[in-house]
Amino acid sequence: MADVEPLPWQDAVWQRVQDSLRAGKLGHALLLCGMAGVGKRRFARRLAASLLCEARPADGQACGSCRGCKQFAAGTHPNLSWLSREFNDRTDKEKRDISLEQLREMMESLALVSHYGQARVIVIDPADAMNIGGVNAVLKTLEEPPAGCYLLLITERVMALAPTLRSRCQRLQFGLPDTALARAWLAQQPGQFDADAALAEAQGAPLAALEDQQSGLATQRRAWLEALLALAQRRIDPLAAAAQVDKDRVATWLAVFQRALQRVLRASGGIDSEPGWRALAGHLGALQIERLLAEAVESRRKLQSNANPQLLVESLMILWWHLSAPADTRIDHRRTSSSA
Fold first, then answer.
1. Which range (34-43, 114-123, 285-294, 322-331) has the least confidence?
2. What angle do the packed helices 67-74 and 40-52 form, to 10 degrees?
3. How much is the pLDDT for 113?
4. What single-letter DSSP state applies at residue 30?
5. C-alpha 108 chain-centroid distance
6. pLDDT digits (tens, 9 = 90+) for 88-123
């Protein structure tokens, strides 16, 4: 079961959970929180496999050969449920929330006797996708949790969860691993890539770095950053740059756009020495960066409200083009827009 193999930087958290489990002090609701790409979901699967294993060794790692482990590996274990956003059949996109119906149905099923008399595990991923009705359904269960039932809540936005829910969970915090440890782990993974560069692009998150390399997203991100530099240097026009962004990847591009602003700030502080970004830092001041960042955040909000993704990208590209011009040639985009 490769997807439950231990991650070396999670040893301390795993040991703490297993100690609590052996002492009968493991909470019924565990909140797995931390930035994306550090292994929260891998840990959740590893823990779920451990809880459902019928011959669990002393170290807590699922044996891989018992009835429970075989059903887990096949994705057919009756005591495991993984709740996430469903797809909208009309738009073929994920829904914004994990529906109240999903959560109610799952919570009601806990009243039934578990199969084989074993533990039951419910994973809610991401937990911050629950609306207020869903949170209330979970809270009712947590007031009187059934014996042997474990809720694993995964989130990258812990403060987006209701305080009443956070207070009823045992928190497991997942931070960035030591760079040397992450580099060594990446070096053992399939594929040929520069581990240091991959980690830097993924902001130190090793699983995100690996996924980016294997999916080709890392290459795409670099191309987008190059397009933004080319736009600032007037080697490409805004609409041509916007055409390079697929409408289904706009959310990812917005994150790259914000990363470009971070590189400008780092270059202005002498941290990023790449010539293109240093030159751009001479044109983009703090006020321009603040405005671009505010527009990017607003674009992300609009994207979640079903705004036209291509128009959002074009608008930001045009604004970037205007504000990245040398100060003596820069057009006041707001004044121009208001007078049109």
1. 322-331
2. 140
3. 67
4. E
5. 29
6. 767 667 778 898 888 888 878 877 767 777 899 999
Distance, in Å, from the CA atom of 333 to the CA atom of 219, rounded to the nearest integer, reads 32
> How many of the other CB atoms lie within 10 Å of CB of 292?
21
CA 325: distance to chain centroid? 34
Sign of the CA dihedral running 318, 321, 324, 325? negative
DSSP assignment string, 55-124? T--TT----SSSHHHHHHHHT--TTEEEE-PPEETTTTEE-SSB-HHHHHHHHHHTTSPPGGG--EEEEE
Check: CB of residue 77 under 8 Å from CB of residue 69: no
Q: How many CB atoms lie within 10 A of CB 160?
A: 13
Residue 62 has pLDDT above 70, yes or no: yes
One-letter-per-residue 3-state SS of 170-239: EEEECCCCCHHHHHHHHHCCCCCCCHHHHHHHCCCCHHHHHHHHHHCHHHHHHHHHHHHHHHHCCCCCHH
Residue type, 91: T
CA gap 190, 42 in Å, rounded: 18
Cβ neighbours of residue 154 closer than 8 Å, sequence gap 6 or more = 32, 33, 40, 41, 44, 123, 124, 125, 126, 127
Between CA 63 and CA 66 the distance in angstroms is: 7
Give the Cα separation of 328 and 225 in Å (integer): 25
The long-range contacts involving 293-298, CB below 8 angstroms and separated by at least 24 positions, are 293/258, 293/261, 295/319, 296/254, 296/257, 296/258, 296/261
CA distance between the termini of the chain: 62
Q: What angle do CA 328, 293, 248 make, to 5 degrees?
A: 115
- Identity (one letter) of the amino acid at 96? R
C-alpha 179/C-alpha 186 separation (Å) is 10
**β-strand 93-94 against 87-88: which pairing, if any?**
antiparallel
* DSSP three-state, residue 290: helix
